[in-house]
Amino acid sequence: QVQLVESGGGSVQAGDSLRLSCAAPDRRAFMWYTSGWFRQAPGQEREFVAAIARSGHTAYNDDFVGGRFIISKDSRKGTLHLQMNNLQPEDTAVYYCAAAQPGSPSRLPSSYDVWGQGTQVTVSA
Q1: How far is the CA of 9 from the CAs of 25, 56, 62, 92, 94, in angstroms?
Q2: For the residues 57-76, what does the mean pLDDT come to?
Q3: What DSSP state is assigned to residue 106?
Q4: How far is Cα of residue 31 from the mean position of the Cα atoms in its chain?
Q5: Does residue 6 contact residue 79 with C-beta atoms inside 8 Å?
Q6: pLDDT at site 26
């Protein structure tokens, strides 16, 4: 089972960008899985942000992404990324990367077997 470690979070102003990264010690296994990003704000449920299948097929939460976020994988480095542009205060949350068995990118947290520890993203107005 892979282990995941996120990085790249921080405190930014509205309109700024951040690039989150997720890495696993077993890079080859990580690239085999479907990978996703979720976020959880205080007092709220964990919600789907984006996912990418081994094939490269992607899915996004159209409720709030609006073309601002891009999920990608670097197969050579064995890393997962989430480029977040035009960040807004409502994007403030802990962001988690997760891995699921190979298949179509799922929007359900229950589909994911392995989770990272999370990285905080704080956006000020």
Answers
A1: 20, 24, 22, 10, 9
A2: 93
A3: P
A4: 14
A5: no
A6: 84
Token pair, residue 76, equals: 């050579």
What does the alpha-carbon distance between residue 41 and residue 112 come to, in Å, rounded to a whole number? 19
Q: Are 20 and 58 in contact (CB under 8 A)?
A: no
Q: Which residues sit opposite 98 in a β-bridge? A: 36, 115
Question: CB–CB of 95/37 below 8 Å?
Answer: yes
Taking residue 59's Cβ as centre, other Cβ atoms within 10 Å add up to 18
**Sheet containing strand 79-84, strands side by side:** 5-7, 18-23, 79-84, 69-74
> How does the average pLDDT of the chain come out, rounded?
93
User: What is the Cα–Cα distance from 110 to 125, expressed in whole angstroms?
Assistant: 33
Tokens representing residue 30 in the block: 């990580």
Residue 48 has pLDDT above 80, yes or no: yes
Strands 10-13 and 119-124: parallel
Closest CA to 73 of 84, 61, 94, 58: 58
Residue 110 DSSP one-character state: G
